[in-house]
Amino acid sequence: MPPVFAHGALRLYLLALLESGPKHGYELIKALSDRFGGTYSPSAGTIYPRLAKLEEEGLVATETQGRRTKYSITTAGLGELNGRRDKLADVENDISASVRRLADNLRTDIRNNMRGLRADLAATAEAARSSAQSGDLFARAERKPSGYDPLLKEAEMMLQSFRDELRVELRLHASSNPITPVTLETVRTVLDQAEIAIKNSLQE
User: Which letter does DSSP use for residue 20 in this model?
Assistant: First the structure.
């Protein structure tokens, strides 16, 4: 995949982010992730060396607050930024293009994953039908009271277990990282495909 930022563009964009006020490194990473709609999130190994270089050049100042460092733009940094406003506009345009490219790549990945998921669901459904035809599952039903359907009960329990486990995973993730629109769209797409596969299986 081509680089998200052209040479020197991230350096300039960090100055632009600091123009609105001092920020911790994590806040800068989050601001960048939000700008890309969750399709890209720079690593600490990408951001902090850039900030250290900006400080070395006198464009950024630091202030230690406990175990955290807050970064702020200096007068020299503002001068650098003001002198490169045209370049900053180009960076914004490049970011917009990168967001579209990353979103397209993500949609392609999701479609490919959905094909694999549909194949897995079809194989699972076929295995379940084969097992039912062998009589092993229905043998248990004959020992139950009239009107009791153990297969329906088992299916309902599987759905309930899936729902509970997924809710736990989502809440654990959300406790440390916000749910992005991309994550939400991925969950929606996967669930829609699973629903279609299950309904198709019920109609056979």
Answer: T
Tell the CATH topology of 9-99. Arc Repressor Mutant, subunit A (1.10.10)
Give me the residue spans of the domains in the chain.
9-99, 107-203
Q: How far apart are CA 32 and CA 36, in angstroms?
A: 6
pLDDT, tens only, 182-196: 677 777 777 877 787
- Please report where in the chains the tokens 């035809």 appear, as a residue: 133
This prediction's pTM? 0.47
CA pair distance 74, 161, nearest whole angstrom: 54
Which residue type sits at 170?
A: L
CB of 38 closer than 8 Å to CB of 181: yes
Tell me which H or E stretch contains 70. Answer: strand 68-73
